[in-house]
What does this fold into?
Amino acid sequence: MVHKTTYSMKFRRRREGKTDYRARLALLKSQKDRLVVRIKSRQVVTQIVGYNNTGDQVKVSATSLELKKYGWTGATGNAPAAYLTGMLIGYRAKGKDIGECVLDIGLHTPVRGSNVFAALKGAVDAGLDIPHSKDAFPAEDRVAGKVFAEYSKKPNTPKEFETVKTAIEKEFAKGD
It folds into this structure.
């Protein structure tokens, strides 16, 4: 008689392709909060998440859809929107006395200059202390929307980027 199975079932989130538990464990061992960046097709979602025995706790969050409040009329899934969203969550985290965290990109493949690293650049520029390599950041022209303005029907994207960036900085400068 057979007393045990020869096949063990993987965790549900691993089967669904949602979680890499080995990478998650490595991030949790640092005992720091995680800057979770998720790039969707039409928006950028960023969260600062802390570990708790009962489950992860979201401490601060920001999405690129919130940029419309600051005057952003462009697309919310590109590099300038990712940078501004990273900047937004960076300032919010500083307001809640979160100064240090590690980057969690989930199942995204780390590609130099990608939108994930544009969001990281925004968070670092806002003052968060996150281990990183400057080689991974996208070029300044791409982050500011100059490359996008060259081939799109919105040539004013760099001006709008600067306007939104200063609006975010002003909002959080008065809180200091």
User: Anything to note?
Assistant: The helical segments are 12-15, 21-29, 79-95, 115-125, 140-144, 146-151, 157-173. The chain has a mean pLDDT of 92. The domain at 18-173 is CATH 3.30.420.100 (Nucleotidyltransferase; domain 5).
